[in-house]
Amino acid sequence: MNSTRLLYYEDAYLKEFEAETLELLELEEGRGVVLNQTAFYPGGGGQPPDRGTLWTAEGEVKIRKAKMLPGGRVIHMFAEQAAPRIKVNQPVKGRIDWDYRYTLMRNHTAAHLMAEAVRQAVGEPVEIVGSGLEAKKVRIDFAYPSSTRPLFPKIEEIANKVVGENREVTVKIMERAEAEKYLEKFHESLRILPSHVKHVRVVEIEGWHACACGGTHVKRTGEIGAIKLLSRASKGKGVERIEFVASQKP
Ligand SMILES: [Zn+2]
Fold first, then answer.
1. How many angstroms is it from 45 CA to the middle of ligand 1?
2. What is the CATH number of domain 5-96?
Protein backbone atom coordinates (compact mmCIF):
# COMPACT_ATOMS: atom_id res chain seq x y z
CA MET A 1 0.00 0.00 0.00
CA ASN A 2 1.51 3.28 -1.10
CA SER A 3 1.44 6.34 1.09
CA THR A 4 0.89 9.87 -0.19
CA ARG A 5 3.83 12.26 -0.53
CA LEU A 6 2.90 15.39 1.43
CA LEU A 7 3.83 18.27 -0.84
CA TYR A 8 2.46 20.89 1.58
CA TYR A 9 5.33 20.06 3.94
CA GLU A 10 7.88 20.62 1.18
CA ASP A 11 6.26 23.91 0.11
CA ALA A 12 3.37 25.41 2.10
CA TYR A 13 2.79 27.87 -0.76
CA LEU A 14 2.17 25.21 -3.41
CA LYS A 15 -1.21 25.87 -5.02
CA GLU A 16 -1.14 23.51 -8.03
CA PHE A 17 0.43 20.10 -8.50
CA GLU A 18 0.42 16.98 -10.66
CA ALA A 19 -0.19 13.53 -9.26
CA GLU A 20 -1.46 10.04 -9.97
CA THR A 21 -4.59 8.36 -8.66
CA LEU A 22 -3.84 5.35 -6.42
CA GLU A 23 -7.17 4.16 -5.01
CA LEU A 24 -10.88 4.96 -5.20
CA LEU A 25 -12.55 4.48 -1.85
CA GLU A 26 -15.99 4.71 -0.36
CA LEU A 27 -16.00 5.85 3.26
CA GLU A 28 -19.02 6.33 5.51
CA GLU A 29 -18.95 10.04 4.73
CA GLY A 30 -18.72 9.58 0.97
CA ARG A 31 -16.41 8.72 -1.91
CA GLY A 32 -12.97 9.97 -2.69
CA VAL A 33 -9.65 9.31 -4.35
CA VAL A 34 -6.20 8.67 -2.86
CA LEU A 35 -3.31 10.31 -4.75
CA ASN A 36 0.39 9.46 -4.78
CA GLN A 37 1.19 13.07 -3.80
CA THR A 38 -0.81 16.11 -2.81
CA ALA A 39 -0.77 19.78 -1.84
CA PHE A 40 -4.11 19.35 -0.03
CA TYR A 41 -3.68 19.67 3.73
CA PRO A 42 -5.76 16.86 5.28
CA GLY A 43 -6.58 18.74 8.49
CA GLY A 44 -5.11 18.36 11.95
CA GLY A 45 -3.67 20.34 14.83
CA GLY A 46 -6.71 22.61 14.79
CA GLN A 47 -6.25 23.53 11.12
CA PRO A 48 -9.20 22.57 8.88
CA PRO A 49 -8.58 20.49 5.74
CA ASP A 50 -8.17 22.02 2.29
CA ARG A 51 -10.75 22.00 -0.48
CA GLY A 52 -10.19 22.51 -4.19
CA THR A 53 -10.33 20.90 -7.62
CA LEU A 54 -8.82 17.94 -9.47
CA TRP A 55 -8.66 17.61 -13.26
CA THR A 56 -8.55 14.19 -14.89
CA ALA A 57 -8.75 13.07 -18.53
CA GLU A 58 -12.51 12.79 -17.94
CA GLY A 59 -12.97 16.28 -16.59
CA GLU A 60 -13.12 18.39 -13.47
CA VAL A 61 -13.79 17.01 -9.98
CA LYS A 62 -14.59 19.29 -7.05
CA ILE A 63 -13.00 18.23 -3.76
CA ARG A 64 -14.78 19.26 -0.57
CA LYS A 65 -11.99 18.21 1.79
CA ALA A 66 -8.89 16.07 2.14
CA LYS A 67 -8.44 13.56 4.92
CA MET A 68 -5.55 11.47 6.29
CA LEU A 69 -6.16 7.72 6.27
CA PRO A 70 -4.15 5.01 8.05
CA GLY A 71 -0.88 4.24 6.29
CA GLY A 72 -0.23 7.89 5.47
CA ARG A 73 -2.67 7.96 2.54
CA VAL A 74 -4.50 11.21 1.79
CA ILE A 75 -8.02 10.82 0.40
CA HIS A 76 -9.65 13.66 -1.53
CA MET A 77 -13.40 13.60 -0.87
CA PHE A 78 -15.68 14.33 -3.84
CA ALA A 79 -18.02 17.30 -3.38
CA GLU A 80 -20.78 15.81 -5.53
CA GLN A 81 -22.84 12.77 -4.56
CA ALA A 82 -22.59 11.16 -8.01
CA ALA A 83 -19.23 9.39 -8.36
CA PRO A 84 -17.13 11.19 -10.96
CA ARG A 85 -15.62 9.27 -13.85
CA ILE A 86 -12.16 8.74 -12.48
CA LYS A 87 -9.87 5.71 -12.67
CA VAL A 88 -6.83 4.50 -10.78
CA ASN A 89 -3.26 4.89 -12.05
CA GLN A 90 -4.29 7.96 -13.98
CA PRO A 91 -2.57 11.36 -14.06
CA VAL A 92 -4.43 14.25 -12.43
CA LYS A 93 -3.81 17.92 -11.86
CA GLY A 94 -4.87 19.48 -8.61
CA ARG A 95 -5.41 22.97 -7.29
CA ILE A 96 -6.25 23.90 -3.72
CA ASP A 97 -8.61 26.75 -2.81
CA TRP A 98 -5.72 29.09 -2.16
CA ASP A 99 -7.63 32.07 -0.68
CA TYR A 100 -9.12 29.78 1.95
CA ARG A 101 -5.82 28.02 2.72
CA TYR A 102 -3.75 31.21 2.82
CA THR A 103 -6.21 32.75 5.30
CA LEU A 104 -5.91 29.62 7.44
CA MET A 105 -2.10 29.75 7.22
CA ARG A 106 -2.05 33.34 8.39
CA ASN A 107 -4.51 32.52 11.17
CA HIS A 108 -2.47 29.50 12.21
CA THR A 109 0.77 31.46 12.52
CA ALA A 110 -1.22 34.17 14.33
CA ALA A 111 -2.44 31.58 16.85
CA HIS A 112 1.18 30.64 17.67
CA LEU A 113 2.17 34.30 17.88
CA MET A 114 -0.76 35.09 20.19
CA ALA A 115 0.15 32.32 22.65
CA GLU A 116 3.27 34.26 23.59
CA ALA A 117 1.54 37.67 23.33
CA VAL A 118 -1.00 36.49 25.93
CA ARG A 119 1.77 35.23 28.21
CA GLN A 120 3.65 38.51 28.01
CA ALA A 121 0.51 40.56 28.61
CA VAL A 122 -0.45 38.41 31.60
CA GLY A 123 3.12 38.46 32.88
CA GLU A 124 3.48 34.73 33.43
CA PRO A 125 3.64 31.58 31.27
CA VAL A 126 -0.04 30.58 31.25
CA GLU A 127 -0.81 27.15 29.86
CA ILE A 128 -2.58 27.00 26.50
CA VAL A 129 -5.19 24.23 26.74
CA GLY A 130 -6.79 24.44 23.31
CA SER A 131 -7.13 26.34 20.07
CA GLY A 132 -9.27 26.32 16.97
CA LEU A 133 -8.83 27.79 13.52
CA GLU A 134 -11.43 28.98 11.08
CA ALA A 135 -11.01 31.28 8.12
CA LYS A 136 -13.11 33.94 9.89
CA LYS A 137 -11.64 33.74 13.40
CA VAL A 138 -9.22 32.00 15.73
CA ARG A 139 -9.78 30.97 19.32
CA ILE A 140 -7.29 30.17 22.06
CA ASP A 141 -8.19 28.65 25.44
CA PHE A 142 -5.75 29.05 28.30
CA ALA A 143 -5.54 28.76 32.06
CA TYR A 144 -6.44 32.13 33.53
CA PRO A 145 -8.79 32.65 36.46
CA SER A 146 -10.36 36.01 35.50
CA SER A 147 -11.37 38.16 32.56
CA THR A 148 -8.62 39.16 30.15
CA ARG A 149 -10.76 42.03 28.82
CA PRO A 150 -8.61 44.68 30.60
CA LEU A 151 -5.54 43.17 28.89
CA PHE A 152 -6.93 43.39 25.34
CA PRO A 153 -5.10 46.61 24.36
CA LYS A 154 -1.84 45.22 25.73
CA ILE A 155 -2.22 41.83 23.99
CA GLU A 156 -3.01 43.52 20.66
CA GLU A 157 -0.10 45.92 21.02
CA ILE A 158 2.38 43.12 21.72
CA ALA A 159 1.00 40.90 18.95
CA ASN A 160 1.00 43.60 16.29
CA LYS A 161 4.52 44.65 17.23
CA VAL A 162 5.70 41.10 16.40
CA VAL A 163 3.70 41.20 13.14
CA GLY A 164 5.45 44.48 12.30
CA GLU A 165 8.87 43.00 13.06
CA ASN A 166 8.28 40.60 10.17
CA ARG A 167 10.01 37.73 11.99
CA GLU A 168 10.91 34.58 10.11
CA VAL A 169 8.87 31.41 10.69
CA THR A 170 10.94 28.24 10.45
CA VAL A 171 10.22 24.50 10.54
CA LYS A 172 12.71 22.00 11.97
CA ILE A 173 12.46 18.27 12.57
CA MET A 174 13.99 17.41 15.94
CA GLU A 175 14.53 14.28 18.00
CA ARG A 176 11.91 14.12 20.71
CA ALA A 177 14.31 14.71 23.63
CA GLU A 178 15.99 17.59 21.83
CA ALA A 179 12.61 19.18 21.04
CA GLU A 180 11.41 18.76 24.62
CA LYS A 181 14.42 20.69 25.85
CA TYR A 182 14.26 23.31 23.09
CA LEU A 183 10.59 24.09 23.75
CA GLU A 184 11.13 24.71 27.47
CA LYS A 185 12.36 28.23 26.91
CA PHE A 186 9.15 28.98 25.01
CA HIS A 187 7.02 27.54 27.85
CA GLU A 188 5.75 24.81 25.54
CA SER A 189 5.85 21.06 26.10
CA LEU A 190 5.22 17.77 24.27
CA ARG A 191 2.82 16.61 26.97
CA ILE A 192 -0.07 15.94 24.56
CA LEU A 193 2.09 14.41 21.83
CA PRO A 194 1.58 10.60 21.70
CA SER A 195 4.59 8.80 23.18
CA HIS A 196 5.27 6.79 19.98
CA VAL A 197 6.19 10.01 18.14
CA LYS A 198 9.99 10.06 18.06
CA HIS A 199 10.60 12.93 15.65
CA VAL A 200 8.93 16.24 16.26
CA ARG A 201 8.11 18.97 13.76
CA VAL A 202 8.94 22.22 15.54
CA VAL A 203 7.51 25.47 14.14
CA GLU A 204 9.27 28.57 15.43
CA ILE A 205 8.49 32.25 15.10
CA GLU A 206 12.10 33.32 15.33
CA GLY A 207 13.05 34.01 18.94
CA TRP A 208 9.40 34.52 19.91
CA HIS A 209 7.56 31.22 20.13
CA ALA A 210 8.04 27.58 19.16
CA CYS A 211 5.90 24.48 19.52
CA ALA A 212 5.29 21.08 17.99
CA CYS A 213 2.91 21.55 15.06
CA GLY A 214 1.89 19.68 11.91
CA GLY A 215 0.16 22.61 10.21
CA THR A 216 1.02 24.99 7.40
CA HIS A 217 2.46 28.41 8.17
CA VAL A 218 3.40 31.66 6.49
CA LYS A 219 7.12 32.41 6.04
CA ARG A 220 7.15 35.71 7.92
CA THR A 221 4.94 37.31 10.57
CA GLY A 222 4.37 40.36 8.35
CA GLU A 223 2.13 38.21 6.14
CA ILE A 224 -0.36 37.81 8.99
CA GLY A 225 -1.58 41.40 8.82
CA ALA A 226 -3.23 43.24 11.70
CA ILE A 227 -4.45 41.10 14.59
CA LYS A 228 -7.65 42.23 16.28
CA LEU A 229 -9.26 40.71 19.38
CA LEU A 230 -12.98 40.08 19.03
CA SER A 231 -14.24 38.63 22.28
CA ARG A 232 -13.54 36.72 25.47
CA ALA A 233 -15.48 34.24 27.57
CA SER A 234 -14.89 32.12 30.62
CA LYS A 235 -15.08 28.42 29.80
CA GLY A 236 -15.24 27.53 33.52
CA LYS A 237 -12.66 25.77 35.70
CA GLY A 238 -10.27 28.68 35.34
CA VAL A 239 -10.12 28.50 31.53
CA GLU A 240 -10.36 31.72 29.56
CA ARG A 241 -11.20 31.81 25.83
CA ILE A 242 -10.27 34.66 23.52
CA GLU A 243 -11.23 35.02 19.87
CA PHE A 244 -9.47 37.15 17.30
CA VAL A 245 -9.11 37.75 13.59
CA ALA A 246 -5.82 37.94 11.79
CA SER A 247 -6.94 37.84 8.24
CA GLN A 248 -7.06 41.46 7.17
CA LYS A 249 -4.66 42.07 4.30
CA PRO A 250 -1.28 43.28 5.55
ZN1 LIG B 1 0.11 24.95 15.17
1. 6
2. 2.40.30.130
Q: Enumerate the domain spans of the chain.
A: 5-96, 101-245
Which pTM value belongs to this model? 0.94
CATH node for 101-245:
3.30.980.10
Which pLDDT score is estimated for 211?
95
Distance 107 CA to ligand 1 centre (A): 10
* Residue 81, pLDDT score: 78
> Ligand 1 center to residue 61 CA distance, Å?
30
Distance between Cα 182 and ligand 1 center (Å): 16
pLDDT at 82: 75
Q: Which residues surround ligand 1, an ion (CB under 5 A)?
A: 45, 213, 215
DSSP string, 116-156: HHHHHHHTS-PPEEEEEE-SS-EEEEEE-SS--GGGHHHHH
